[in-house]
Amino acid sequence: MDPSIPDEVCAVQHCVLCVLTGVSLPYLIRFRQCLIEYRSSPVNASKRPLFNALKYASSFPVIFLSAAQRTIVLELAAVSGEAVARESWHGEHPLFRLWYDTCYCQP
Fold it and tell me: The pTM is what?
């Protein structure tokens, strides 16, 4: 745990993790079912279960990034004050800086 983050934020992060698990569990179960169906089909005659598995796998980045967004806003509010959480610019967060440096900084 980061000592600069208050205990309240850590508790909320654990709550977000529980919600994240609950939200992603149905997609994970269906993803697994599609993979099992694809593997058990004779000679993989149909690619449909594989495409369905891809569809369910595409939901995980959305779920995880939305949970990360909530956590980042809570961290910023705890460190910089409530006014920062209401702003649309979160450029001071290290995760945003990593993304920005990766995408826009030339070597």
Answer: 0.59
Burial of 65: CB neighbours in 10 Å, binned 0-12, 13-18, 19+: exposed
Q: Which residue's structure tokens are 């997609």?
A: 27
Per-residue three-class SS string for 18-61: HHHHHHHHHHHHHHHHHHHHHHHCHHHCCCHHHHHHHHHHCHHH
Phi/psi for 83 (5° steps) reads: -65, -35
- pLDDT at position 17 is 75
pLDDT digit string, tens, across residues 69-100: 777 777 777 777 767 666 666 556 677 777 77
Q: Look at the block and give the residue holding tokens 């983050």.
A: 5
Give the integer Cα–Cα distance in Å for 78 and 4: 9
Long-range contacts of 53-57 (CB under 8 A, 24+ apart): 56/27, 56/28, 56/30, 56/31, 57/31
Distant-in-sequence, close-in-space partners of 41: CB < 8 Å, separation ≥ 6: 49
